């Protein structure tokens, strides 16, 4: 998708602080971090939401989640605790419609979220 911000990060047309890459995914630091660790994991292919990716390529969704856990391990928060969030739809706060897993941690996280 030529007008998709995260496709442009995958292609290198928009810079990002990339922390991990796998065959199907790229992980990079959120530009507006909400916690000491705030990394986004995205599939290289464009899929709008987690639900649509689950329906079309469940293995790729599993790769996104595996990589999200690996980010947490790399950041040293796999043991203390972290959160993986897929905001889905406008009311849930999704602003970029290229599916992304937020990996958040490094501080106490409230539940339920606001
Ligand atoms: P969401 O609101 O769930 O769609 O999440 C989109 C996230 O992308 C937000 O947390 C933004 O801060 C983040 N974001 C937007 N533009 C960029 C960018 N150029 N590089 C890294 N993160 C970004
Ligand atoms: Zn995209």
Automatic annotation (TrEMBL):
Q: Which InterPro entries match?
A: Histidine_triad_HIT, HIT-like, HIT-like_sf
Q: Where is the HIT domain?
A: 5-114
One GO MF term on file is:
catalytic activity
Q: Map motif Histidine triad motif onto the chain.
A: 98-102
The catalytic site is made up of: 100
Do you know which Pfam families this protein is assigned to? HIT
Q: What PANTHER family does the annotation carry?
A: HISTIDINE TRIAD HIT PROTEIN (PTHR23089)
Q: What is this protein called?
A: Histidine triad nucleotide-binding protein
- The species this protein belongs to is Actinomadura geliboluensis
């Amino acid at each position: 998708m030529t007008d998709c911000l995260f496709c442009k990060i995958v292609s290198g047309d928009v810079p990002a602080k990339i922390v991990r890459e796998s065959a199907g995914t790229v992980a990079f630091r959120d530009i507006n971090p909400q916690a000491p660790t705030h990394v986004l994991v995205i599939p290289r292919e464009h899929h709008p939401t987690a639900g649509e990716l689950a329906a079309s390529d469940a293995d790729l969704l599993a790769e996104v989640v595996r990589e999200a856990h690996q980010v947490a391990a790399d950041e040293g928060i796999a043991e203390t605790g972290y959160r993986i969030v897929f905001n889905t739809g406008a009311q849930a706060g999704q602003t970029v419609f290229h599916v992304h897993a937020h990996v958040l941690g490094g501080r106490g996280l409230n539940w339920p979220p606001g």
